[in-house]
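Reviewers asked in the last cycle whether our approach scales beyond single polypeptides. To address this, we selected a multi-component target totalling 1475 residues and predicted its structure end to end. The input consisted of the following lines:
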Amino acid sequence: MRFGRISQAVGVLAIATLALSACAGNTGSPSPTSGGAQEGGTIGVAETNGFSSFNSGTADGNSDVNGHIGYATHSNFLYIDDKLNIVKNEKFGKYEKLSDDPLTVKYTVNEGVKWSDGTQVSAADLLLTWASGSAYYDDSNAEKKTGTTYFLTAADTSGLNLTDFPEIGEDNRSITLKYSKPFADWELALGFAGNGGIDIPAHVVAQKAGLKDAQALVDLFKSVKRGDPAAPKPVNAQLKKVADFWSTGFDSKTLPSDPNLFLSNGPYIVKDVVAEQSLTLVRNKDYNWGPTPHADEIVVRTIGSAPAQVQALKNGEVDIINPQASADTVEQIKALDGVQLLQGKQLSYDHLDLNYSGPFADKDVRTAFMLTVPRKDIVDKIIKKIDPEATPLDSQIFVPAQAAYADSVKNNGSSEYQDVNVDKAKQLLAGKTPTIRIMYNKDNPNRVDAFSLIRESATKAGFKIVDGGLGKADWSAHLGDGSYDATIFGWINSGVGVTGTPQIFKTGGGSNFNGLSSPDADKLMDELIITTDKAKQDELQTKIDAAIWSTSYGLPLFQSPDVKAYSDQISGVTAMPNQTGVWWNVWDWARK
Amino acid sequence: MSQPTQEEVALAQQVQHETVPGPGAEYQGLSQGQIVRKRFFGHTGALIGLAAFALIFIMAFTSVGFAGIPGWWKYNHVDVSPLVNDGVPSASLWPLAWGEHPFGQDRIGRDLFAMTMRGAQQSIIIMVIIGSIAGLIGAVVGGLAGYFRGWVEAILMRLTDVIIIIPVLLLAAVVAQMAGRRDADSWFAGFAASNGVVVLGIFLGLVSWVGLARLVRGEFLTLREREFVDAARISGATNARIIFKHILPNAVGVLIVNITLTMSAAILLETALSYLGVGVKSPDTSLGLLISQNQEAFSTRPWLFWFPGLFIVAICLSINFIGDGLRDAFDPRQKKFRAKSATDSGRHSSETAPASPAASGPAAADSKES
Amino acid sequence: MLSYVVRRLATAALILLGASFLVYLLTASSGDPLADLRASNAPNRQQLMDARSQLLDLDTPAPLRYFKWLGGAAQCLVPFAGTCDLGKSVTGQPITEALGIALVQTLTLVTGATVLAILIGITLGIVTALRQYSALDYGVTFMAFLFFSLPIFWVAVLLKEFGAIGFNNFLRNPVIPLPVSLGTGIVLGVVVAVAAGGEIKRRLISGGVVFALVTAVMVYFSATLWFKNPGLGPVVIGIAGVGMAFAVTTLVSGLKNRKALQASLIVAGLGVVSWFVIQPLLAQATGLMIFLLAIATVLVGVGVGYLMGGYDRGQSMRAAGITAFLVGGLVALDRFMQAWPTYFNNSRVRGRPIATIGAGTPNLQGDYWVLTIDTFTHLILPTVALILVSLASYTRFTRSSMLEIMNMDYIRTARAKGLSERSVIMGHAFRNALIPLATIVAFDIGALIGGAVITESVFSVHGMGFLFLDGITHIDPNPVMGVFLCVAVTAMVFNLIADLAYSALDPRVRIKA
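The resulting structure, written as structure tokens, was:
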């Protein structure tokens, strides 16, 4: 007996079952109902970093992604377009210059502009923005370690700090700022996304800090006097509480259970956040005070590395990417079907600075060195593959996206340095063979390559080049300490506004690392920062540019290329050089 | 961090408390060294590994030259030459040709063959340095702890424990940071500036000895209790003599095998660190740095990604096979057992077999099973 | 015993203190947290530098900062007080919160991979040990070393290119060209012919069968566009169930134990029947329900085995229980396949199911099956990458451990007294060969919690490894310390458990109290 009775029974049963079921393949079985309702108009965007704060204006919250989310969820008096022009959003409100001397500006929010909880955007909100961006109450002294810094803002406070306590309008929707002296960048001082935008609702901050309502917050602001670092006062506990909540209360990697913490007054509102993975924006229903958004939903995915972004785009997981630009990324994107490549330039640029000391104390040596720098070659080898239209940057102050660039370049003396001129360099050196130590960030391949090319060329003219490259954590600490003679690194042009210029080029300026001191330029810059007229500003900057070139300062090398790509199924995406990036016209994005 | 560590493989030895049985009949009359050699050269995988590694080694060190001695290849890893055919590799199998740039060129025109060879040199140097330093420290610390026991062991092993739970990535990041620092005007800075790779290797060696130390200690713990050690002690041998003449030769197998494995892990460690940006720094190069720099070129200029990658795999693979051969050679416990002759006994059904679990050895098997 | 544990814990605490101090100092000294701001040309450069110095408390020397940190960390020892304070990261996020998020991500990513790597590794190790120096042994050894030698980001990039993008493109029109079917069949056939032991004839037959089967299945898949609308159906489940019943019985009790075989076959039959019965229930599945069903399935199997009895009731119960679990798995797999078209056509998936990034499709709506498939399609690539590179150590370890055991005297004794090879291997050798694995697994769990730094970064999973790396790049000691604490504590605890388990499993090892 090979099989027992039970085995046989099992066998029969099994065969019977098989026979019964043979016709019941999956094709016939009822498909289960799962919630696959049509969800249309979704656009996926890749961001490099994870979202971390609903207040992108704070010192620890001002990352690019927080700024982008803040931009999509808030409206302001103005925004910057892709040509770096200021565009006023009059549907949100208006600002007007009431007088030039003293500079007086009145900001009014339109009636009906509301936070997503239904509260009117009011003077209290403007006042909170002003308070956080003006350092008005701070009396801290960094050297003596005394006093208090209240609002930990990432914005430049130097402009608003010039104002007195604002005057609040009768309608409770306006404030008037009076500057103690003219301020060149007054338009950007308040009500501009990411840098003093109307992003944080005063009534929420008031409530969270234990105050009754927004009016109580306004009263508190009124009651505290301007801080004086020379005579620090004891901490004002209530103000500190308000400031602390503003600084850290909106930090969150997930969606807070309290919807007051992510109120929107812009085209979109945050619907969901999955920590370090994704963030979902949906239309703000009430919004009608600005450009109308097209897409119903925007999903932001966090993807760190550039190859991963490209692969995610290729795989259809995102529609818009903004990876770190490299030649290979560009070629990879070009090879993709159904993907549009946007090539542009960022506002950041690499430059070679020569110290006004050591072997370079002699202007002829500086000029000679500048003549040996193969700028075209550097651009060809490093940038051309990413951006075929790249050319060397010819201005210390402007970038080609700005209208004044072309004029400035004509007269600033940059034409001398278009091509390498070893003979003239040798002539200037007159037989000297100075030893030049070039410092750069060894972990940045572009800088390494630029250094290699400069070394090769400069050696021909008789310079002895020492490789002073340092690791990424070390090099910046050495800026300005005199341990090198020349340095290659990057700066970011602000695109709009002029206060960045003295920071770099003025004698003793905060980022003037090579010791440039040009009385002519200094005088022009003093005038520049109190000039409020755009045309006049351009004229002054053009003069400053020429003054700097004439001292053989060093050379701007190239603008960092910018690579963005989006799927064919999306329309409305355009390149934008500043840090708002593709997000600047988020309302135009649409799925075809 | 979840890359498998060779230590896991090596731990296999640690848990084997059994003593090494004597060589079988076929090795009668041979010294231990001869037996090991014979077994090693009888191991096909190890031989192929050895040959492949020798080939790579010779190619890497002769082609682009080393330590000032020029090599036979016309380019070096820093020189920039005009792009030929957009940098596409010129080597081809049919017709078999070498061409101007056999492995292609990178974006600014450096020769990839020269860079790969230079990278292979650096990776091999790092590997050897890590292996020797880790081996030396591991042997000394483990040996002292295992032989003297008591407070020496307590201190050394607690130190080992402290280092072993610090993530290697952190140590490496700090170490790489220090090795990459070239600002201080000291002899060290001068040395590090020209020998960044050596410094990186030394520092990594200083932190990767802990696994070895544990293994060696375990080995010493067993060996010091053996009769021949007692005999030596009674006949008045000094501690040093006992350690070097009696115990160390018996522990050398474990040591060599695990140094080999540490070395293959070292290559991967270097690769991982370079990928994360804390390893070898440009303009010097290593295989790991080359692939991490060129990973974006994967689908557009794949040769930049494939050639260095293949070399890493080849080196690592050959070292692993050499290590495997050494293990088999030193450890006769893994000699082939004859399953064939045993299968005939399968005829006896379990129904007739008496259940006698108690007889089945020290580890009690489940009685229901037999 | 107790005093041993207490002593071990006390030592561990001291080691932890020492190591954490070192880690803190090392991180703090590994660079300059203000590096990026120093090179900035922002007009408020100084203000930003001051703000960050204040946030990271850079004015306090690092050793003092460590003790401040320790003060906060010490509160974590107070249970349920909720005062645990591990500081904040450079973006102002409390570390305790960040760790919570990261831990979940890491565990999702690595748990499956580790379990699978252990299972596959042990199987391969045992098979290669039993067939030492065969073509199979060399093949597996070579592959294991090859995968071990691959840098993981290399593997990951390749997997994404071919496993996700390539496969998704294929799914658009899942037709397999005939040459591909034939080629795959030939390759697999040759592999099997080489791997199968024994006579040439036997090898040829197995190779031929595999070739025919694989080619036929692939042609069938292609013709029916199976990948668009996959499913097993009761027929396949039935055939596979019978096969499993035989295989499981062979391993557990040997086919000679008829009762065990019958029990397994009955269970397989029940599985097919249950396929019809259970579909409406499965439509409302939840995670808990599946878990309960799994338990119920095993219980039914064990019950059938108990009723069948036989001379060794335990064997029958075990064989039937395992078979029940496997067949139940098939039924569940079939149900997943039924949900596949729904998932595939979901507007958020857009017909590209295998993902290259993240741990889930954002805002995906759906039932249990769709959501689970989503998790699966996101985890498959990193899991494969992790398995490939960690397979080697388990395979080699099990192999050498098994080889050693197979040469032991008691194995010879077992053979000598006439036990079947199955009994010798499964009953005597296998279990004892696994004992040392306790150490390895414990060792791995620590590393597992630490995350897979590189895998995480390639697949954009922000787990422990990412947190750690981010801390190192920003020279921010707090996240680094948080991750370190988790890893170190887990590693130490599991090492202790491993040692205790070891002494319980292997009577030769005694704990010195």
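The first helix of chain A runs from residue 5 to 21. We regard this as preliminary and will revisit it once experimental data from Aim 1 are available.
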